[in-house]
Amino acid sequence: MTWQNWGRSESASPVRVVTPASADEVATAIADARRDGLTVKPIGAGHSFTGIAVADGVQLNLSRLSGLLSVDRELQQVTLAAGTHLHEVPALLAPHGLAMQNLGDIDAQTVAGATSTGTHGTGAAFGGLATQIVAVTLVTAAGEILRIDASHELFNAARLGLGSLGVLVDITVQCVPAFKLAAVEAPEPLAGVLESFLERSAAPDHFEFYWFPHTTTALTKTNTRLALTEPSVPLGGFKRWLDDEFMSNTVFSWVCGIGRSIPAAIPSINRLASQLTGDRAFTDVSTSVFTTVRRVRFREMEYALAVEAIPEAVREIDRLITRKGWRISFPLEVRVAAPDDIWLSTAYGRRTGYVAVHRYVKEDHHEYFRAVEEVFRTFGGRPHWGKIHYRDAGDFATLYPRFDDFLAARDKLDPDRVFANAYLTRVLG
Ligand SMILES: Cc1cc2nc3c(=O)[nH]c(=O)nc-3n(C[C@H](O)[C@H](O)[C@H](O)COP(=O)(O)OP(=O)(O)OC[C@H]3O[C@@H](n4cnc5c(N)ncnc54)[C@H](O)[C@@H]3O)c2cc1C
């Protein structure tokens, strides 16, 4: 069996695939693998662009560990089986009047896969998914089943563990009362958005923008949280299909194909895209606003920088693209997050801004990504663990103050490297 990730940048041919349905079955799968001298790798939805989910030995498919296990209505906490997909969560939480605090751009990932790589959305007062986690159940290499909550010394390692510490079987999430979002999407001059970025990104609940290279327009998105009782003003079915399906997927896929054949056309196409999209306002339940469907495959690199560095980093990437004469069809995406205390979180200890660059799946991404990474490196950037980068453990020792503590946790929980693969060896040593 050959496994491929969504971005078609990684593949694997595991020796066997096991589909456990309980923590005990996970422990048995680990013991069997060790007996046969094989490594173990749980996979989620395969939406990481890096080789973090590549399983050479035993691939653990967690599709039978799915669903809502318990609800504490008073604390507004829910325990989800680790293989639950984020798109399944709204329907599971709705009967309890609850929702996830914040989400990224899509909801195809599993809860365990998303937290293990530090998946995040945007919002100056909001952290990534791992910050919403209050406890996990982890099966270690020795087959121990550990319940790890805030009182446990390894809590801030286990919430974002790169799949290197063991197999998560369930995750308890701090939810919030279900809410709506008022979304305003508008094209604005890029120069002004960068000039005012610190204020613009700090004031609203959720602010982000896209910028198509070769244009001077930023497509801003500003989402304001509202009570669930506020009236909805949803996009009409046709408008939603036109914007989110036809323009963002069907037309965009044609455009990427044209851009690949005729790169000289890309600047004009990007200018047209900036004029035709991103001008609308609507109010809807949070999950319908946070996430969209991405059907055009691409590769992505995303770096976390101190938020103050974002405007200059974007300007520098603009200058780099012009200097190199590249034609880039995919936009940059810029987001923010609150500081947190999770050891391998890209937002550890600092108010964070994220810049993501993308390339169409049929184009070579390496030259562009390597050069952009040099820009991020000069700003002390930390790469997203699930998105393409070229850094290794030597870099991370200086970028993460608690890196050595994480390595010590790994030595303790997986001394024989049962959960290792080539990516983890590169980034953790
Ligand atoms: C189209 C697209 C949009 C994206 N948007 C965003 C975004 O908005 N924000 C963002 O931050 N990221 C985003 N990402 C990146 C994505 O969220 C992460 O790469 C995420 O890890 C993918 O989750 P997954 O379920 O596919 O996990 P996988 O990629 O399958 O696995 C990721 C890691 O989790 C580990 N893992 C999985 N299950 C378990 C388990 N039970 N126990 C222990 N470890 C486990 C795997 O071993 C692996 O190390 C996007 C990716 C794509 C393709």
Short key terms for the protein model shown above:
8-stranded antiparallel β-sheet; alpha+beta; Vanillyl_alc_oxidase_C-sub2; binds flavin-adenine dinucleotide; FAD-bd_PCMH_sub1; Vanillyl-alcohol Oxidase, Chain A, domain 3; 5-stranded antiparallel β-sheet; Uridine Diphospho-n-acetylenolpyruvylglucosamine Reductase, domain 2; Uridine Diphospho-n-acetylenolpyruvylglucosamine Reductase, domain 3; 429 residues; single chain; FAD-bd_PCMH_sub2
The ligands found in this model are: flavin-adenine dinucleotide
* Low-pLDDT residue intervals, each spanning 5 or more residues: none
Q: What is the straight-line distance between the termini?
A: 28 Å
CATH architecture of the largest domain: 3-Layer(aba) Sandwich
Q: Which strand order does the major sheet show? A: 16-13-15-14-18-19-17-20
- How many helices? 14
Radius of gyration: 21 Å
Could you tell me the mean pLDDT? 95
Tally of individual domains:
3
Keywords: Oxidoreductase
Protein name: D-arabinono-1,4-lactone oxidase
Organism: Hamadaea flava
Pfam families: ALO, FAD_binding_4
